[in-house]
Predict the structure.
Amino acid sequence: MNKLPSLGMLYDHIRPEERLLIDAAKRKGIKLELYNAEEIFFEASEIDNAQNFQETVLQRCVSYFRSINLSALLESSSINVINSSKIASLCGNKLLATSTLAKGKIPTPKTFIAFTIESALNALSKIGYPAVIKPIIGSWGRLVAPLKDPESARAILENRDCMFPIYQVYYLQEMIESLSRDMRCVIVGDKAVAAIYRYSGPDDWRTNTARGGRAENCKITTEIEDISIKAAKVFGDGIFGVDIMESPRGLLVHEVNYTTEFRNSVPVTGVDIPGLILDYAVRRSKK
Ligand SMILES: Nc1ncnc2c1ncn2[C@@H]1O[C@H](COP(=O)(O)OP(=O)(O)O)[C@@H](O)[C@H]1O
Ligand SMILES: [Mg+2]
């Protein structure tokens, strides 16, 4: 008799996405063992520190630091983590993500990095106003702010100067103007499986659905498929949410999410994203 396929899933919060994955596993007869990152601990000085884990583990932690550290530890014990610590560390850091996209020749917004207020203002004079500042690590649009002119830029930079040192790595980007929507294309392995438009809500310029953005089905054109698959590939083999903006220069990839949320994509596209993620993880576990 064939054994049931089995996978592990690391999490720190059960979001609707993790709930959908748990439900899909039940539906598909896949044993999904759950590991709460807030409860587990390891003897890191032991070689075989992860022997109680399934051989293939989906990494679904919200926290970037938990994700990369836990994944690296599991990988050192030969656990197959999806997405890998390498993918997470590149995608989860906007500076490394931008330079990886640039190296892969994927069109991306013009972006500068600076480490002091004065050098940031000099960089902004090259980008022009309005521009956007982002924390290099973060999500849900948090602290992603428009810089409308040199005066407001200086004020926002001075404000960041009072925060933790990570917020003084100034990631500065051209503003793609009149952007009322962007696109999120979900990649599972080598396939673009679903795409949505995200329209910004009435109270915010950002399109993040966590900030009231509205999701609508988006037809996966060859252009969207092509740029999304290529963008995902420069990071590696895995599961991604590729965020794309329409600009006068054509499509630009501004973010590649490595623990992508899909609660809004499933109902508007009708695609069983959690089921496809599990099928992919099972395929990877057989390799
Ligand atoms: N360069 C830009 N031009 C216009 N809007 C942007 C730009 N960068 C980000 N945004 C808006 O801000 C949102 C959040 O930015 P993003 O880079 O995706 O950060 P996060 O990781 O916090 O989601 C985007 O979904 C988009 O609506
Ligand atoms: Mg985003």
Q: What stands out?
A: Residues 208, 243, 255 surround magnesium ion (ligand 2) (CB under 6 Å). The radius of gyration is 20 Å. The mean pLDDT is 95.
